[in-house]
Each structure stands twice: as structure tokens, then as C-alpha cells.
Amino acid sequence: SQNVKILKMNGYCESTDVIMTCNINNGRALRNNTVIVVNVTLDGSTLIGDQLVITAQLSSSGKEIEDADNRHTHAIELKRFSEVDVRGLYNPSYFDIDKQDGTSIIKSKLIVENLGPSNIQNTTVSVLIPETFDNGARSCPLIEAVKSVKILNGEQEFTFSSSPTTHSSTSQSNLKPFNESTHSNLDFLRNKQEVILSCHQAYVRCRNVTFFIADFTPSPQIPLQIELELDVQPKALLKLFPDEDNTLVSLFVTVDFVHAQTEIHKSTQGSIVFYRTGSGVPMWVYVLSVLLGALIL
């Protein structure tokens, strides 16, 4: 048996620990073919293991012809499942690489929410930051350096480790393309061909920032907040673009839950966008995009 909390039961029932006792029909005899329904609501947040076994037994002072049918055991299969939403906020978040020289500092915040229904317990969280693109034919830096990291869950701050990794992420992550986002000031980019880069691709080398979390509860009011300060050289990404300026690159920082016992479905929105405007777009459009990006944080 499991130490599961009973949240709600019939008025003629009482419980102690994991045993619920009900006084059926106020102790009076039941007529033939009488059906009594006993309702119980359990708190599933503390359940562990693969199944919950419930045994119901009817005790009577009368003489039973067939006592065996007064006992019933039912096993409920347990499955832990959670929806996780990851939102990346970047300042600045858009770069016209034809007009951006030198190194830029990006202040970013990843907001990770467990939308439930299950807790995510005793798992390592992996923050994967794309550092280098190398497919054999082309190679260039993506994120030049990770200058600072701060990880919070409410008032709790986590210690972390950071190391380069050559292994791409194997988890499924729904990355929201730029064309599905709402940025009216950048509508001129929607006709461009989008290339999505993240650590889910084998030709992207990454930095892996990891930390351990004992219990990540479904609480939108207390999300995980991962604050990063990143260095990037937009001009270095010229190698990713063909001679034409009809391509934009969306660069995603992603979050994985390693060896989690809970089945997790993630969606990730928010990326760093690199593009070329050439001579067809006035400078004020670029300036406006950077200013609006600053309002995100």
C-alpha cells in the first residue's frame, strides 16, 4: 500500500492512514439487489511506483453464503506526465549581421514552467547553449562565450556545472519557428527562408549547463528562471548565409530534463534571430526592432 492522502469521501466514511471505513446504510441490512456507491478522491501528487492497489472488503454480522465475493482488489496503473513550457526572452533578440560589427552582449532569461499535472522529481536539468556550427562544409561560432549564469526557483538558487558537449540532445522539443511568432515590426522577415539551429542537431556543438532539482512542482507562479549573459559576434554568422539575403537563422537555447521518471512534453518559444537586409530595408526598421527587443526584459 502507499501513503496516499484521501481528499474527499462520503459523509458516512472515516479514514485513518491508508484505511477508509464506511458505515453502509447506517448499519441496517441491505435489501436484495441494493446498490451502494462509495466515492473517494485521492491526492495523487505523492504516489510513487508503477501502480496503486486498492482493496475493498465488505464486513457483515450476518451469515454469508458466498463470503469470497465480499472482497475485491483493483490495480490502477500509474503514469507520471507533465507539460513543460519554455520561453526564451533575449535583449537584444534580433541582429542584422550586415549592420552589426564587433561583439554584442545578450542578456537572456529562460522561464521554465511545469504545467502539470505531475511533479518532476529528482532529475538533472540540462541547459544547452549552441556554441559552434560545423557541418563539414561550413564552420562558424554561434554563441562566442557564456559570461554568467544564474538559476532560480522562487527564492532557491541552484549551483550548477558547465562543460562543452559534442552530444546533441535526444529529447523531443517543439521549437516554435519565427513565422509562428507575433512581431509586427519584423513582418518583412516572414518571406525569408528560416533555418532553425539548436542542440538537437548533430552539427551544432554546445555548452551544457546542468543542475539538479529535487521537486519541480506544477506552479506557474514559481517557474524556473535561468538567467544567462551571452557574447555573440553576428558578423561571424555570414558563413551560414548564401550570397542572397533571403535567409534568417533562429538560434534556440533549449532545456532538457535528464533521466526524468516523468514523461515530459516540452514546447520552446523565443530565439535569437540573425538576418540580412541588404539595401532593401531602411535603417529605421532595424533600430525599431532592437528597441522593441529591449522591452522584452
Task: Record keyword descriptors for this entry.
seven-stranded mixed beta sheet; mainly beta; integrin
Task: Give a short synopsis of this structure.
Helices cover 4% and strands 48% of the residues. With 297 residues, it is mainly β.
Description:
- 4% of the residues lie in helices and 48% in strands.
- A seven-stranded mixed β-sheet has the order 13-12-18-9-7-21-15. Strands 10, 11, 14, 17 and 20 form a five-stranded antiparallel β-sheet that branches. It has a four-stranded mixed β-sheet with strand order 8-22-19-16.
- A hairpin with a 2-residue loop joins strand 2 (13-16) and strand 3 (19-22).
- It has one helix spanning 283-294; strands at residues 5-9, 13-16, 19-22, 40-43, 51-57, 71-77, 81-91, 94-96, 104-117, 120-134, 139-141, 145-153, 156-157, 161-165, 173-175, 193-197, 204-216, 224-232, 247-251, 254-258, 263-269, 272-275.
- The protein has one helix and 22 strands.
- It is mostly beta strands and 297 residues long.
- GO terms for molecular function: integrin binding.
- Residues 159-173 have a biased composition (Low complexity).
- It comes from Culex pipiens (House mosquito).
- This is Integrin alpha-PS3.
- Residues 159-178 are annotated as: Disordered.
